[in-house]
Specification:
Blueprint (H helix, E strand, L loop, with lengths): L1 H17 L16 E3 L29 H6 L1 H5 L5 E3 L4 E3 L7 E7 L6 H13 L3 E6 L9 H5 L4 E3 L5 E3 L4 H17 L4 E4 L7 H14 L3 E7 L8 E3 L3 H9 L9 H7 L4 E2 L9 H7 L4 H12 L5 E5 L25 H15 L1 H5 L1 E8 L2 E7 L4 E7 L5 E5 L1 H4 L3 E5 L5 E3 L6 E5 L3 E9 L5 H41 L1
Parallel strand pairs: 1-2, 1-12, 2-5, 5-8, 8-9, 9-10, 11-12
Antiparallel strand pairs: 3-4, 6-7, 13-14, 14-15, 15-20, 16-19, 17-18, 17-20
Keywords: Hydrolase, Membrane, Metal-binding, Signal, Transmembrane, Transmembrane helix
GO molecular function: hydrolase activity
Protein name: Alpha-amylase family glycosyl hydrolase
Length: 487
Amino acid sequence: MKVKWISGILSAALLLSLSAPASADEARALEDESIYDVLVDRYFNKLGANDYDVIATDPAAFNGGDFAGLADQLLHIKDMGFTVLSIGPVFASATYDGQEVMDYNQFERHFGTEEEFNDLLDTVHDNDMKLMIDIPTQNVSSQHVWVDENPDWFTENGDGTYALDTSNMDAQSALTEFVSGFIQQYEIDGLRLQQTEEIAPDFIRYFSQAIKEIKDIYIISDAEMEPVEGLDAVVLPGVEETLRSSYKNFDEGTSDLPELLENAEGKLIQADSLRGSRVTSDIVESQGFPPTRMRLLFTQLLTMPGIPVVQYGSEIAMNGSELPESHQLLNMNVEQELIDHINNLNSLRNSSEALRTGDLEILHEEDGWLIYKRSNDEETWIIAINNSSETKNFSVPAETVGSDKQLQGLFENDIVRQGENGDYRITLDREIAETFHVIDEQGFNKAYIAALVVLYVMFMIFLWIVWRKGRQRKADEAAKSKIVRRT
């Protein structure tokens, strides 16, 4: 037990040294970001003053989350290593998710005031993060001020909501004018268009050009679709289905993952979305064990090419097969193991350009045993994921990583050294993932041995001090007893 404890300390120190954050002054591109996707109402309720008809036990009602709650509990997101906070729509809405907009010119009163929104912005920026909001257009409320004033701008949906006709020139101009004014007034860093697949491509080009002339902010899609001019990134087609089917249980097969990995560069990658069910629901239905499944899934999501988007609650394996069940109020009083794993992976990704934008090489894929390499001129990583029910082995040839190297595992404390035949043989137990850093052969790790010696000496000194104090206490008690007997 003592050896494992000491080894854990040293591994944590290694991880910390590799994961030092980039300078706040260092500009990040979208490919460098990782996005945490949340609904304001479902995160944290800080202020009771804006709890109008709030029913925290009703998944279809407003639950009380607000801008102040996000600002107050931002460190939960920051500590997991995310660099962009996406908070969904913020405008006056008939529904908790902000989609049924009634007035773009007002903040949703349940979420808070303009001052509280600005406080949230300041808190996000003070933590070297970026803030993104959603622009909903395809399910706005029948009470939207534009519906009454300009009915020809809309088409009616079957559920009583209305879709803005983004091919209508007047509607295009009105929406673009509003958003242009919003980004000039508030220092947000990104916009996500909701139900982007339903929006006219010509409008996206027009809208993006107008916005970026004012401020060069991110404009992304919320839908799996082919790239469209004007969008900085779209969700990789097939990514949710592929990741879910591959990791919902062990021995599911990984044959679709190589193609996914090879097509992911520059795309948004996610296993969940706020538009439907949770990946945990697939895991439970397949009788998988969510913590283990999510650990493997996150290992791939945060080490593969692409821009990861993680929905709130994924860090606690939130369940839900449909809306609004999949939009539960976030419970932060949970075990930290999965949260810590996300933090470790995100910290590596934030510190490693190779893991964010480096080259990809698939080394092996068979029967749930996936191994790939991420590298650039400065560094090389080997990611191994054993999503099977048995121990797996694979020999990485020397030409893949070079000679006289060693593979330093960061999570399972494994070190793989070059064998006599020149290969590096990786062995992983069932349902285990490891991220290996390729470094020069170290031989005996003098720093490791020195740390062991220091810890051992300190421990022995501590025992000696305790022993001396105990001996002195017994001597004092014996002296007192003699005095008592004499008197």
